[in-house]
UniProtKB/TrEMBL annotation:
Membrane topology of this protein: Multi-pass membrane protein
Pfam families tied to this protein: ATP-synt_C (PF00137)
The protein's name: V-type proton ATPase proteolipid subunit
Membrane-spanning residues: 16-38, 59-79, 99-124, 136-161
Residue ranges of every copy of the V-ATPase proteolipid subunit C-like domain listed in the record: 20-79, 102-161
Subcellular location: Vacuole membrane
Cellular component per GO, a single term: vacuolar membrane
Keywords: Hydrogen ion transport, Ion transport, Membrane, Transmembrane, Transmembrane helix, Transport, Vacuole
UniProt-recorded Gene Ontology molecular function terms: proton-transporting ATPase activity, rotational mechanism
Matching SUPFAM superfamilies: F1F0 ATP synthase subunit C
Organism name: Peronospora destructor
Amino acid sequence: MLAQLVADVCPSSASFFGFMGVASALVFANLGAAYGTAKSGVGIASMGVMRPELAMRNIIPVVMAGVLGIYGLIVAVIIQGSIDPPNGNMPKYGSYSGFAHLAAGLCCGLSGLAAGMAIGVVGDAGVRAVGQQEKLFVNMILILIFAEALGLYGLIVALILSQKKSDCPTRVSSFIADNGNDRWSAASACSPFRSFLQEAEWRRSVLLTRLSLAVPFHSMSLRNATTFKI
């Protein structure tokens, strides 16, 4: 029973969700950064043909798109460092941590993807417009800042979720391995399991008491019935 409870809290699939969070944070954020860089680069190249002196000034959308990949890298490294490998047969990484880390990776990755797409569209159209009217440069920068903020929101939430962690009851697992069916010594490792086993033991004793009282009464009834027939 205790082994089943430990397996439910810390299944072997928990690490899968954690590493999926690592992959999601890095891959989706890099997809957004790649799209923003490529889209903005096309606009800069088109504008640079007519106004080459403005090419370096309008490189800002490319830089802001590249920052999104750094967000994903930071979250991926933090989540990877929080995934504890198993110690022999005893798990150390719970399902609660796995789900939290998966959510953190998706928050950062998908937010970076959305921000990258916004930066790419704004950067492409913005640098072309600045090439024709330089007064639009400040407006383009403000729009890019608000687009970049989407990725920053995902980074903040991902950092908060990456700190969510639950410890597996490894002491219970070690007691089970050492004591076998010794329920009380295993339960002493964790108070919730102890109270559960005490209640189960009480129910078993009540059931045995009822059975012990029911058997003599049934035998007496049979004996009285036989006497009456005679």
